[in-house]
Amino acid sequence: MSHMIEISGLTKAFASGKGIFDLNLTVREGEVFGYLGPNGAGKSTTIRHLMGYMKPDRGSSRIAGKDCWNQAPAIHSRVGYLPGEIAFMEGIDGLEFLNLMSGMRGMKDNKRRDDLIERFQFDIKTPIRKMSKGMKQKVGIVAAFMHDPDILILDEPTSGLDPLMQRLFIDLILEEKARGKTVLMSSHIFQEVDRTCDRVAILKEGRLMAEKNVADLVLVQRRLFDVVLASEEAAAALSRSGLEVSKCEGVRVRIAVQGDYNLFLRELSQYDVLSLDVHELDLEEIFMHYYDREETL
Amino acid sequence: MNMALLRNMAKVHGKTLASYISATVLYELLIIWVYPSIANSPQLNDLLTSMPAGLMKALGVEGGIQKYNDYLSAQFYGTLFVVILMVYCIMTSVQAIARLVDRGSMAYLLSTPVSRSKVAVTQAIVLVFGLFAFSICTTIGGLLGAQFLIDAPAYDKGLFVQVNLIVFLLFTFIASYCFLISCLCDDEKRALSWSSSLTVLFYSLDLVGKMSSNLTWMRYLSPFYLFRPQDIVKGTFPVGWVSLGLGIGALLIFWLSVSVFRRRDLPL
C-alpha cells in the first residue's frame, strides 16, 4: 500500500513556544487515521500544514506525493476538508454556500450533495447566521464530502452533533473507508475513533507520543464500570475480589478494567447484578492517563 | 480569477454597494438641482471670494462656484463624495481578505482547487469593480442631471468625465493600499484601524497643506494631492500623466498584495 499522507520532520515553532516539533507520520491509502491529543497539542497546526495554510519552518508534508505548501491547489482537487472551527461567509444561506463551494470546485453533478443533505436532514435554505452549531457542522460535512474526494481531512468532525447525527457520521466514515478512501481525522470522542480508525497517533505538546493500532490502544485503555449489586455484603465481597475497585458506595461499586475483560466478567458472574453501566471517559482523560503511564515507564 | 467566487461576492457586496451608490447619486442630483439658485445669487459668490485664500482652497472653491463645472467639483467632488468613497474603500478591502481570514471562512475558499492568488485577484477585482460602478453611476447621474433636472448651462462635459476618471483612479489607488493592509493582517480590526488611520492621515495632510501656504509641502505626501477637481476644470492639470501614475501605482500595490497573500502563513 502506498503512502497517501507523509509528514516528515515537520517543525513549526510559534512565538509562544508552542508548535509542532519534528513530526513524522504516514497514513496509508485506504486507511482511517485518528489524530489525537489534548487541546493545544498541535493537531490543528498539523492539519493547517496539510492544507497548505502554513509554511513549515523545517521538514515537509506531502499528500499523494505532492508538497502541501507548494502544490496546494493540485492536492485540494482530491481532498475534502472540514475545519475545526466552522465559520462560513456571512450574508448567504446554506445552499448558496454549497453552490459557492461546488462552483469553486468546478463540480457539475450535485447528486451526491443532495444525497448527503437528505441524509443529514437539514434545511439548506436557512441563513447561515441563524444556524445552530450542529447545523453548521452538517453543512460543513456536506461541503467536505460532496465532491467525493479520495482523501478526507477532518478536524473534530462530530463536535456539535447530537448522538444520532454522530452515529450517522460514523456510518458515513465507515462507508467511505469501504470505498477505499483515506481519512485523517482529529477527535476527542473515543467512540468514533474506536469504531472507525485503523491507527491513531497521539500528540502531546507538539510531539508525537505514540503511533498505535486502535486494537492495541483498546488494550491500554482503562474503562470504568459502575456495577450495582443486590446487597451491600455482595458489594463488599466484590471489592475484595482482586479487581481494581476505584470506589465502593453501598451497593454500587466502580471497577476499573484494563485489557482483561474476561477476569472482570468471571468475577461479576458470581454475583446478582442489578445494573451495569460503562462510565464514559472522554479521550483527554484516557490519554492523560496514557501519558502518565508512558512517563512512569 | 474564479467566476463562482466572483458571483458570490458580487451578490454579497451588491446590496451594500447599490445602497451606497444610490445615496451618492441622489445626493449628486440634489446638488445639481439647487445649482440654479446658487448660480443666480451673486451675493453668495461675493461672500465666497471675500474669504481668506487658504480657507477657499480647503473648501475647494477657489475658482468660485458660479460655473457649473466649478460648482459641481466644489460641492460634490470636493466634499461628501470623497468621504463616501473612502469609507467604501476601507470597508470593502477589509472584508475582502482580512475579515475572511480573521473569522476563518477563508479556510473554505482555500480548501478548493482555487489557488490563493486566484482568490486574492478575484477579491481585488470585486473591490475595483465596485469603485468603477460608483464612477460610472455618478458620471451618468451628473450628465443626465444637468440635462434634465435644470436648464442645462454651458459646461464642459469632457472635463466632467475627466474629474470622474481621476476620482476612479485615485480611489483605486487608495483601495490598493487598503487591500495590501488587508492581505497582511490576521485581525480584521487591526486591518480596519490601519487602513482608516492611513487614509485619514493622507486626507488631513492634504487639507492642512491646502490651508496654509507654509505647509504646502504636506500635500505632496498625500495621494489626495492628485485630486484637484478645480485644477482639472481650469484645464491646468496633467490628467493623462496622473492617470497613468495612479493606475500603475495601484496595479503594483495590488500585485504586491497578491504575492504577500500567496506566501504568508494563515491562521485558519
From TrEMBL, chain B:
It comes from Paenibacillus monticola. The chain crosses the membrane at residues 20-38, 76-98, 119-145, 165-185, 197-218, 238-261. Keywords: Membrane, Transmembrane, Transmembrane helix. This is ABC transporter permease subunit. GO terms for cellular component: plasma membrane. Coiled coil: none annotated. It comes from the Bacteria. GO terms for molecular function: ABC-type transporter activity. Pfam families: ABC2_membrane_2.
